[in-house]
UniProtKB/TrEMBL annotation, chain A:
Organism: Micromonospora endophytica
Full protein name: Uncharacterized protein
TrEMBL record, chain B:
Organism per entry: Micromonospora endophytica
Name of protein: Acyl-CoA dehydrogenase
Membership in a protein family: Belongs to the acyl-CoA dehydrogenase family.
Entries under Pfam families matching the protein: Acyl-CoA_dh_1, Acyl-CoA_dh_M
SUPFAM superfamilies, sorted: Acyl-CoA dehydrogenase C-terminal domain-like, Acyl-CoA dehydrogenase NM domain-like
Record flagged with keyword Iron-sulfur: no
This protein's record includes keyword Flavoprotein: yes
Length: 200, 410
């Protein structure tokens, strides 16, 4: 494992794996936070020795937790879970800005896609749902793991609707779709409320 | 490989005859091997070349070839013939995608461009195109979508202009083209003159000077090798213009729409195959579900069954000469959505870290998102469904009421 990066917030355009590294650093300085299932997800820069997998090309490494990891329940895990949701929300904010630019640059007939009522309404709906999610009181949002999972699912719904508005560019790994996929995977690993495993 | 499957492949389908059910079962037996190959393609999409000798890879493209270019004696002829109809393609494609959708998309073969050639080309052009495919593994592409205009065929900006010494020059760019950057041959839609009948389809050899292609990094369905293409003064000979002996209204744009309507149900079938596979994967790995979770899964399975039924119906209608444009778009859009919902639900119900501990699921979770954007987004098809709704409402109104409504609009 490489030394943890500085704990200062990364700039808005930072790739998600590096954002993730910063979240680890802020939640548990000098350590990486393990999921309840015993996985550690961080950038391939922070975990260069992790085995290659399908997420490697997105810049994300998956490793088993070690005795040095920050484990399970507790303040570090809580801080990390809360920060994951905040990062997901910031990613969606940035994607809305991206969608506005993208749809303004695409034309259909003699008008931009952004000027189409159907598209404008869908984009506004996405923005409203994101604002609504941000307005959920902290006590509700972080009441327990179920509450965080509900928040995660809301954010995934918003992200999927947003990416559909981007058409085929919403499927490119080097655009918002790649980072949003990682945010979904992170939620699946760190925020899922169950403790049960599948049969095998 | 029946161990992958919970339900018989043709379960819940009352629109298939005995031969088409046999085709479904034949393709269902391939799914285990296709799944292995598909996972390899997710790591290395060009690894398809290692599997070209395998029947599971070779069979699915057979029905897309004219009879004289099919592999003689390699596969049961009645099943190959059954897979050449739109309904047959849908049934076979669903089963193949149940194994893995990447394999058929990564395979050399005619793609949609072969359909355009069959629909528009003269005999010499057909011989040139299909003869080349028969002689050696050849990737092909169908280039309609453009960077600024999407798949709006009427608005395309790639131009075909007269060349000084005769023939034509092709200039422009295409985007999100499957297999574009690795193809040897393809069909490009371009504008020769203003208006809908000014659109042409040309056959292009990618070794032509001025052609370039680059791969685009996609979240999933990597076997499709989605690409961006550029054409800079690419020479197009008169014999490369498809359907030159036809009237302008029966070539170019006609060829594009003719093929899209026939292949679009196949995209729905791919999405349904993946959705069903995800649900069956859950039932294999989590045999007992709490009642509430079982109801959620059953809700998705109900939707899959419904969209499958409608997909078979629109495909059979095309075979019967009836093209229900809105219905075809609707099944594609609904199948894409149910595939996303199925993979999300399965990831949730398999428990924490399922997207790490089940690599096949993580791959499928990424792959199925491609179906939303392939052959028109949901918004596009939703608008077509709305227009259809308007037309049906008008048709149901008494004549006197239609006259009143019509007057009010003026």
């Amino acid at each position: 494992m490489n030394p943890a990066p500085s704990a200062s917030p990364p700039p808005a355009s930072t790739p998600y794996p590096l954002v993730l590294d910063a979240l680890h650093s802020r939640a548990a300085p000098g350590r990486l936070v393990a999921s309840p299932t015993g996985h550690v997800l961080a950038s391939t820069v922070t975990l260069p020795d992790a085995p290659p997998g399908p997420l490697t090309r997105f810049g994300l490494a998956v490793a088993e937790a070690t005795p040095e990891s920050a484990f399970g329940e507790g303040p570090a895990a809580d801080r990390f879970a809360a920060a994951l949701l905040t990062a997901h929300r910031e990613l969606l904010d940035a994607t809305i800005a991206h969608a506005l630019r993208h749809l303004e640059g695409r034309t259909s007939g003699d008008t931009t896609l952004l000027a189409k009522q159907l598209v404008a309404g869908q984009l506004a709906d996405v923005a409203l749902r994101l604002a609504e999610d941000a307005a959920v009181p902290e006590a509700h949002r972080h009441a327990d793991r179920d509450a965080r999972w509900r928040c995660h699912l809301r954010l995934v719904d918003i992200g999927r609707d947003l990416l559909r508005l981007l058409g085929a560019s919403g499927f490119l790994a080097d655009g918002p779709a790649g980072d949003l996929h990682l945010a979904e995977v992170l939620g699946n690993v760190y925020l899922h409320p169950d403790t049960e495993y599948a049969d095998d | 490989m029946t161990e992958l499957r919970e339900a018989a492949p043709s379960a819940g389908t009352d629109l298939l005859d005995e031969r088409t059910r046999e085709l479904a079962d034949y393709c269902a037996a391939m799914t285990g091997r296709l799944r292995v190959i598909g996972q390899r393609l997710d790591r290395d999409p060009d690894a398809i070349t290692e599997f070209l000798h395998e029947p599971q890879v070779r069979f699915p493209v057979q029905g897309m070839l004219p009879p004289q270019y099919r592999s003689a004696g390699e596969f049961p002829a009645p099943l190959v013939a059954a897979s050449s109809t739109v309904l047959g393609q849908v049934v076979a494609t669903e089963q193949v995608a149940y194994g893995d959708p990447n394999v058929i998309l990564a395979s050399p073969g005619p793609s949609l461009s072969g359909g355009v050639v069959q629909a528009l080309a003269d005999e010499q052009q057909r011989q040139r195109y299909f003869g080349r495919l028969a002689a050696a593994p050849t990737h092909t592409f169908f280039a309609l979508t453009e960077p600024a205009k999407g798949s709006a065929a009427l608005e395309l900006e790639t131009t075909l202009t007269p060349a000084p010494g005769g023939g034509w020059l092709l200039n422009g760019a295409k985007c999100y083209i499957g297999n574009g950057a690795r193809a040897q041959l393809g069909v490009v839609f371009c504008r020769r003159a203003p208006g809908p009948w000014g659109i042409e389809a040309v056959l292009l050899d990618t070794s032509a000077p001025g052609f370039s292609g680059e791969l685009l990094p996609t979240v999933g369905l990597r076997g499709a090798r989605i690409s961006r293409l550029r054409f800079q003064d690419v020479a197009v000979a008169p014999e490369d213009l498809l359907g030159a002996d036809r009237s302008p209204s029966r070539r170019g744009l006609y060829g594009a729409t003719y093929i899209l309507y026939r292949f679009r149900p196949g995209i729905a079938a791919m999405a349904l195959g993946c959705a069903q596979a995800a649900c069956d994967y859950l039932r294999t790995h989590r045999a007992t579900l709490p009642r509430q979770d079982r109801h959620r899964l059953d809700g998705v399975l109900d939707r899959i069954a419904a969209v499958r039924h409608r997909t078979y119906a629109v495909a059979a209608a095309v075979d019967a000469g009836v093209v229900d444009v809105a219905g075809i778009g609707a099944v594609k859009a609904r199948a894409a959505r149910v595939a996303e919902d199925a993979t999300r639900l399965v990831a949730e119900l398999l428990g924490p870290a399922s997207l790490i501990e089940h690599p096949w699921l993580e791959k499928t979770y990424r792959d199925v998102r491609a179906f939303e954007l392939m052959e028109g987004t949901t918004n596009l098809h939703t608008m077509a469904a709305f227009q259809s709704l308007l037309r049906s409402r008008t048709a149901l109104q008494p004549a006197a009421q239609r006259a009143v409504d019509g007057a009010a609009r003026h």
